[in-house]
Amino acid sequence: MLSLDLHPLFRNNRDIELALRQFIFRAHQSGEPVAEIIPGKGTGQLRARVLAFLEQKHIARLYERVEVKDGNTGRVLVHFARR
Fold it and tell me: What pTM did the predictor assign?
């Protein structure tokens, strides 16, 4: 499973956006069924930004669904369609 840890980037909006964009496109192209984004637990602001990014129409077309487990809100799973 591909994984992106956003902890080192949490203060720089541009770096977060770029990292998310590159990661989602790479994960989509890889054929992996699931990719993991780790915004961390914290206050939830970074997770909210990740979810807002994933909801953009041009990004949402690339995946089937997003999962945030109740027990572990510090990670977001992005499920891609099987090819």
Answer: 0.91
Cα–Cα distance, 1 to 59 (Å, whole number): 19
What DSSP assignment string belongs to the chain? -EEEE-GGGTT-HHHHHHHHHHHHHHHHHHT-SEEEEE--STTSHHHHHHHHHHTSHHHHTT-SEEE--SS-TT-EEEEPPP-
Number of CB atoms found within 10 A of residue 58's CB:
7
Mean pLDDT by 10 residues, the chain (83 residues): 88 88 96 94 88 96 93 90 75
Q: Tell how strand 34-38 and strand 2-5 pair up.
A: parallel
Two tokens, residue 70: 């109740």
CB 30 within 8 Å of CB 3: no
